[in-house]
Amino acid sequence: MTDSLPANLPTVSRRGLMLVLSSPSGAGKTTIGHRLLERDKHITLSVSATTRAPRPGEKDGKDYQFMSVEQYKELVKAEEFLEHAKVFDNYYGTPRAPVYAELAKGRDMLFDIDWQGAQQLAQNARSDLVSVFILPPTVAELQRRLTDRGADSSAVVASRMDKAGAEMSHWREYDYIVINSDLNRSVNAILSILHAERLRRDRQQGMADFVNALRGGE
Fold first, then answer.
1. Which CATH number covers residue 170?
2. Is residue 216 in some structural domain?
């Protein structure tokens, strides 16, 4: 072995990953996602398309791409979505091209989607996927969070609570599970997952050439 490292070592780059957060409505995935984006500048929110009406304060192109049902169905027909699903009588989908462009540049993409979307991503792009399911600490706490946020009527809250059990039954399909009893601890746990997944061998492009050069071209 030589005494010094070889000059002009091959470059190692990293392919980006898709970090999926899923949970029953009210368990905290959206709040956790916002904290992740604030604390880690190497991850970008994937902006989903949806047919639901904007909530107060939401902006088209930033929070969602809002569109009509007709527009949505045309994109599904053209296979322009990486994943798509119907949730609570509305349609959601992730445009394919922008995600792949960011992954190729080494950018990570954050997805706030349900189990149906996560299943489709696992089928279409498993090697790029890191999935986390977020659980509430108790059913009572889940209902309190849904009620306190004041975004939905009591009938909608009741509907979401009715469907929470079915949503939580899909926890086994995810790579990681986080019980969101404390927001800061949950965010730190997911940041640890993200940092570790970035170091996976199969995401390091050019690593074989780099190691070969370190070994003197053996």
1. 3.40.50.300
2. no
If pLDDT is split at 50, 70 and 90, which confidence band does 20 have? very high
CA–CA separation, 61 and 101 (whole Å): 17
Among 83, 21, 24, 25, smallest CA distance to 49 is for 83
- The gap from C-alpha 70 to its chain's centroid, in whole angstroms, comes to 26
pLDDT, position 217? 67
